[in-house]
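job 3f2a | input accepted
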Amino acid sequence: MMGRCFELTLFVLLVDGVFGDVVTVPVMEGDSVTLNTGVTKQQHDKILWYFNNTRIALINGHPNTSCLYDGEGGRFRDRLKVDYESGSLTITDIRSEHAGRYEAELIRSESSGKRQSLNRNRKCDSTKITQKISSTHDDTIKIFSVIITASLSDQETKAEPQMEKRASNLSSGLSAGAVAGIVVAVLLVFAAAAAGVIYYGKLNAGRGKDKGDYEGLAKEEEHTQNV
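job 3f2a | predicted structure (227 res):
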């Protein structure tokens, strides 16, 4: 995994009584992502975060009255961080198992009934598995769809075997006879080139000798005439 850590922050305004559109969030594997509702949260308001309908965070505004859950199979253990004032959720060191649907539910402090029962839940049990219940009209929900993409190092690692495989396929496509034929052809080319060099060398040497003999005869004839 690459040492760098890219943090993607989404600011999405939630309006009471309105279900927001699903926001698609692509995140590179190994990075961190922050999902920020952008909601104006009051001191005693609560924000519940769910992953695929399983609760992963209860934010009451203070760590003593809040809770972060490990999730099914402990997939979120030591990976979650929250902002107790804004209610934003951060998932660190993203893996493929963290891809999915994230929902933020805002519960106003003036709400009653089942929501007020959350005030009595002072003790945090991070291993507890709580499924999402149907929301009523006075809850506000924002939905994120987190998609995990491969890191650059993983892409390079996957590309290397592909190149090796192609080279192997190329070599394996040639029979032993074909390989031997190629080797013989290469040797013949080199032998022909060497023979050509030797031939032209001897030819040039012969021309030089003939030229020397001619010049010698010419000088001898000239000397005879002078005498």
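job 3f2a | The chain has two domains: 7-156, 174-226.
job 3f2a | closed
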